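Hypothesis: this fold can be encoded by more than one sequence.
Test: take the structure tokens below, design a sequence, compare later.
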């Protein structure tokens, strides 16, 4: 007896990806990328990367050369955004459109410390972040305001205050927020699956550990507004109230 074949099931998914926006001259931009890789080993490891060419006027031969140089640096491009149709080809990463942007993560040069980077206007003066040494914790003695990104690849981040909606905290280790977490918190970004996120009041737009994430819509309603800890089990984000 012939059985009815089972249909192929297609499911929609949305994923968090980093977008790289190269600048001319490309060799200088690659040198800055090498500096980041040297200071933050594994930053691009196992991360989906989108190449944003909206502000880069290059030809297809130059694009192929750029992709080859990125591949040699273990930067794997999953798609290309903002490119002319004539620039793409079947053997190149596919074109991506309608990506939902977040605030930029601006990484300071080697001689600067990791500090909040205003995306719009400078924040009012206040106590400066404290960074004792590489691979140490970063303590911010003020809130993270809307539009700011706080990036620290070398360890834990502690915020003595709240993280506002529209802001972002990115850490290679764990994240501790002694206030409301209303923006985005991404811990364990250097491949640290044991990293955790702690906050006194969960109102986050997005939480992520080691590349796995949940948006506000995915969080249990009963945990919103509560003091919680967030961790990763396998490939599943777990959230539990703190007693």
């Amino acid at each position: 007896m012939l059985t009815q074949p089972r249909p192929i099931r297609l499911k929609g998914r949305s994923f968090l990806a980093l977008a790289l926006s190269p600048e001319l001259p490309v060799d200088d931009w690659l040198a800055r990328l090498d500096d980041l890789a040297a200071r933050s080993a594994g930053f691009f490891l196992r991360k989906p990367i989108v190449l944003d060419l909206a502000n880069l006027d290059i030809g297809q031969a130059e694009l192929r050369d750029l992709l080859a140089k990125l591949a040699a640096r273990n930067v794997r491009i999953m798609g290309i955004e903002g490119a002319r149709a004539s620039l793409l080809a079947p053997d190149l990463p596919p074109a991506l459109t309608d990506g939902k942007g977040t605030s930029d993560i601006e990484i300071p040069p080697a001689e600067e410390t990791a500090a909040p980077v205003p995306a719009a206007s400078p924040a009012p003066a206040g106590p400066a972040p404290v960074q004792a040494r590489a691979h140490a914790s970063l303590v911010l003695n003020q809130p993270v305001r809307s539009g700011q990104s706080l990036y620290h690849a070398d360890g834990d981040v502690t915020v003595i205050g709240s993280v506002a909606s529209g802001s972002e905290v990115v850490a290679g280790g764990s994240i501790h927020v002694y206030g409301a977490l209303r923006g985005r918190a991404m811990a364990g970004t250097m491949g640290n699956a044991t990293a955790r996120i702690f906050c006194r009041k969960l109102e986050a737009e997005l939480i992520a550990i080691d590349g796995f994430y949940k948006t506000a819509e995915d969080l249990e309603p009963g945990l919103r507004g509560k003091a919680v800890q967030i961790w990763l089990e396998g490939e599943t984000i777990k959230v539990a109230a703190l007693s």
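The radius of gyration is 20 Å. The chain has two domains: 18-96, 126-241.
Hypothesis status: open.
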